[in-house]
Amino acid sequence: MRKFLLLFIALNLFAPPAGAGNLSPGAFTDAVAAAVTTALPTAKVMVIGNLQLLINYGEGGGSATLSLSNAYDLYVRDPEHLKSVISSYVSAIPPPVPSVKANRIDRSRIVPVVKSRQWFDHVQRLYKADGKELRYSEGPFSGELIVIYAEDNSTAMRFLSTADEVGDRSQLNDLAIANMIRLLPKIEMRAGADNTWLISAGGDYESSLLLLDDLWSGGQIKVDGEIVVAVPAKDALLITGSHNSAGITRLRKFAADVAGGPYGLTKALFVYRGGRFTMFKNE
User: Fold this and answer.
1) What is the overall mean pLDDT for the chain?
2) Phi and psi dihedrals of 72, rounded to 5?
3) Alpha-carbon distance 105 to 115, whole Å?
4) How far is CA 24 from CA 8, 79, 259, 280, in A?
5) How does DSSP assign 195-257, residue by residue?
6) CB-based contact 42:57 (threshold 8 Å)
7) Per-residue three-class SS string for 103-125
8) pLDDT digit string (tens) for 165-219?
9) CA angle 31–66–112, rounded 5-degree value
10) How many whole angstroms from its chain centre is CA 63?
11) What's the pTM?
12) Which helix (H) or strand (E) holds 89?
């Protein structure tokens, strides 16, 4: 009862004034962090990026890295219900898990998430300080991007660590990709200017489409030269051909404009070559 009383107080203290504009991703993250801190007074809550929190429960209770992307999307669709969105999210936060005991999760909801190497290095240091590590894979990338694994449920995407029970670890990547394919909405390609193509998949998994080798090697994507992609954010994926100089210029501008946003990944472009995505430079 005390937890929900504190949460009620926090939601009223940190709610925006009537008539205020929609909260930015950063402001929404701060509002959720404040509510979580109030609801879980013994935990240490850290903002590690827009729409990303790290909760350290202390006293052997372990920690959890949480994505607020789903919660923010719910808020944006219905801004008048900010309090209920935050309340529902905080109520769904997993309880402390003793570090000596693996946390069992829903394996049918494990998915791959593409992150920037900079983000990964920062968060991995925090995890290691707590005695565990993020579950990750180098994926089909080199350099700027990396794959981590998460449990995607209706309220949040929780990044998985070595404290989570995931079953056969050698099968984790195949399981995550199979789950993603099952959860994906229809993949759509829309033609853009300068012979570029925008690929959409519902807003949550665009960057993770880079992991679907059949999509890139199957011959259904027709471009002038090799496939070049810009993936400046988790929900942004634009492609063109390596011989299309106007398309390459457009991709570079697109990446530069989007990479600094709330779901930002990288300004770099990548070329699909030999079953992998490597950094693209004008050749």
Assistant:
1) 84
2) -65, -40
3) 21
4) 22, 11, 16, 32
5) GEEEEESTTTSTGGGGG-HHHHHSS-S--SSSEEEEEEETTEEEEEETT-HHHHHHHHHHHHH
6) yes
7) EECCHHHEEEEEEEHHHHHHHHH
8) 888 888 999 999 999 999 988 889 999 899 999 999 888 889 999 999 999 998 8
9) 140
10) 18
11) 0.75
12) helix 82-91
166: closest CA among 212, 112, 110, 211? 110
Max Cα–Cα distance, the chain, nearest Å? 64
**Cα-based torsion angle of the residue sequence 11, 17, 22, 24 in order, rounded to the nearest 10 degrees:** -70
> Angle, nearest 10°, between helix axes 69-77 and 25-39?
110
CA distance 139 to 172: 12
- Are the C-beta atoms of 166 and 135 separated by less than 8 Å? yes
Unique residue bearing structure tokens 């049918």? 108
The DSSP-derived string for 24-82 is PHHHHHHHHHHHHHHHSTTSEEEEEETTEEEEE--TT--EEEEE-HHHHHHHHH-GGGH
SS3 166: coil
- pLDDT score recorded for residue 96: 67
Rounded to whole angstroms, the Cα distance separating 69 from 230 reads: 21
Task: Tell me the pLDDT tens digit for each residue of 77-135.
Answer: 888 889 888 988 888 776 665 554 556 788 999 999 999 998 899 888 888 887 889 99
The encoded tokens of residue 61 equal 């209770």
Q: How many residues does the chain have?
A: 283
Distance CA 151, CA 173 (A): 13
- Taking the C-alpha atoms of residue 200 and residue 39, their distance in angstroms, rounded to an integer, is 37
147/118 Cα distance (integer angstroms): 12
